[in-house]
Amino acid sequence: MSGPALPLQTAIAALEAQRAVLGDAVVDAALAPLKAQLERLQAAAGPATDHPAPIAPAARPSRAGESTVDDQSLRQLTILFLDIVGSTALSTRLDPEDVHAVVDGLLARGTSIIRAHGGRVLQYAGDSILAVFGAAQSLEDDAERAVHCGLALLAAGRAAGAEVLAAYGHAGFDVRVGVHTGPVLLGGGVDGEGAVRGMAVNVAARMEQAAPPGALRISQDTSRQVQGVFDLEPQEPIAVKGLVEPMRTWLVRRARARSERDPARGLEGLRPPMVGRGAELLVLQQAWHQLHAGDGARQGTTLVAAEAGFGKSRLLAEFDAWRAQQPERCQVFRGRADPSTERQPYGLLRDLLAAALGIDDGDAPALAARKLEQGLLPLLAPTQGDDLAEANAHLIGHLIGLDFGASRHLAGILDDPAQLRSRAFHAFALLFRALAAPGQPPLLVTLDDLHWADDGTLDVLDFLARGEPGLPIRVLGLARPALFERRPAWREPERAERV
Questions:
Q1: By the 8 A CB rule, do 319 and 269 touch?
Q2: 63-122 residue pLDDT tens
Q3: If 0-12 CB within 10 Å is exposed, 13-18 middle and 19+ buried, where does residue 170 land?
Q4: What span, in angstroms and rounded, lies between the C-alpha atoms of 219 and 4?
Q5: Is the pLDDT of residue 173 over 50?
Q6: Is the pLDDT of residue 55 over 60?
Q7: How far is Cα 269 from Cα 244, in angstroms, rounded to an integer?
Q8: Which residue among 8, 81, 163, 189 is least crowded, i.e. fewest CB within 10 A of its CB?
Q9: What average pLDDT does the structure give for the chain?
Q10: Average pLDDT for residues 424-452, to the nearest whole number?
């Protein structure tokens, strides 16, 4: 048969060929609607003849942008499965309408969380969600965002469980999440854009099934992508249908603060000696010595600019190891940007302060604001007085996105972004002056992957370099050359020493 039935036959044959990999249950579930539609087409066509008349496809509502078999593409994606735990037990205690309200409410909340992290929900099945990251555009942080999303989904599950316990006296309502990264066939078939096929889907589903309630399990392939970004607890290898060897997996316990993240990249467990970067390491060491020279050369910026694969993060790690052996001391602020940082105004600056002040990603807004005050006021008050110190702390906090909208110090200027920005930049300069007061160690700021920094943070660095001469502060930045497309002036030697 040709014509409209041909794509269906192609899809059926492709799925049958994957039966040994995907398993009978997955293949049979996918084949059922395809075979049903093929039977309808064959019935409509009638007996075969030497010159068959054209046949119309089976009636089916069309959808805008609907995909066909011809729209399939092989993609590397990160796949997330979420399953609600305890909904069956809940159904024995509540009316069906109440159960649906609870489950649908959590699924809706989960959908919003997935979309907020840049994922796409492909399918709902009962009380489960299948989502992918990297479908529209593959990004370097797809796996990181998926795991961050998984942790946020666990938090939503805990909150929903507490609500169910309070409202109905029923314990045990929660979620579990699994994440895996691998190649899939995306699109095509009767499900259009919602179709995703391949062994990677089966592995992601196994990660979810093996996760304890309230936990997030990730595969070895995903763990390689998020190494050093999360606290991972190794688990016993588990069997996955279609794989010969059991798969290593991890439970994700928490996201590390950026200052805690391990900059090492490459093969897990291997740290070969650094080769061919001696000249660049020497430049960073010279910048360290200049910081402690006690003359006008103390302030400055050193940029290591090179394409991906050069070993910039490894270079910084080697410098840190060398610095730890030196007799001189300094105050160190660490920051590392990623593809999501560029979309967060003053995001990298916030990470620098959060790491120094002990502000965690999961802190409630009021707690984060209180930690910022408690950390900054003792630094600013000795030279500014309590009231001005509080005003400057609130300006800094508001700029980096903390909740100081009700502060009396900001009243009257909240509708004037230019004035807020100018005064907050000045407050940052005062903060660095307080940190670098006479008798205090000089300041060292190390910024990795600076090409992903947000423009607001780069503006603050520009402001400090231009408007605060004499500060004992050295900035070491590592970036790809794309940074200079956004900041052409940073190519000039008077603005930064380039390596």
A1: no
A2: 333 333 445 667 789 999 999 998 888 888 888 888 888 999 999 999 999 998 889 999
A3: middle
A4: 39
A5: yes
A6: no
A7: 23
A8: 163
A9: 80
A10: 87
In three-state form (DSSP H/G/I as H, E/B as E, the rest C), the secondary structure along the chain is: CCCCHHHHHHHHHHHHHCHHHHCHHHHHHHHHHHHHHHHHHHHHHCCCCCCCCCCCCCCCCCCCCCCCHHHCEEEEEEEEEEEEECHHHHHCCCCHHHHHHHHHHHHHHHHHHHHHCCCEEEEEECCEEEEEECCCCCCCCHHHHHHHHHHHHHHHHHHHHHHHHHHHCCCCCEEEEEEEEEEEEECCCCCHHHCEECHHHHHHHHHHHHCCCCCEEEEHHHHHHCCCCEEEEECCCECCCCCCCCECEEEEEEECCHHHCCCCCCCCCCCCCCCCCHHHHHHHHHHHHHHCCCCHHHCEEEEEECCCCCCHHHHHHHHHHHHCCCCCCCEEEEEECCCCHHHCCCHHHHHHHHHHHCCCCCCCHHHHHHHHHHHHHHHHHHHHCHHHHHHHHHHHHHHCCCCCCCCCCCCCCCCCHHHHHHHHHHHHHHHHHHHCCCCCCCEEEEEECHHHCCHHHHHHHHHHHHHCCCCCEEEEEEECCCHHHHCHHHHCCCCCEEC
Query: What's phi and psi for 185, nearest 5 deg?
Result: -95, 115
- Tell me how far CA of residue 337 lies from CA of 116, 142, 238, in angstroms: 19, 15, 34
What pLDDT score was predicted for residue 192?
Answer: 53
pLDDT at 270: 46
Tell me the two tokens of residue 385. Answer: 């007085």
Calculate helix-pair angle for 417-435, 455-467, nearest 10 degrees: 60
pLDDT of the residue at 129: 93
Looking at residue 149, its pLDDT comes to: 94
Single-letter amino acid, residue 266: G
Per-residue model confidence (pLDDT) at position 49: 37
Structure tokens at 397: 């906090």
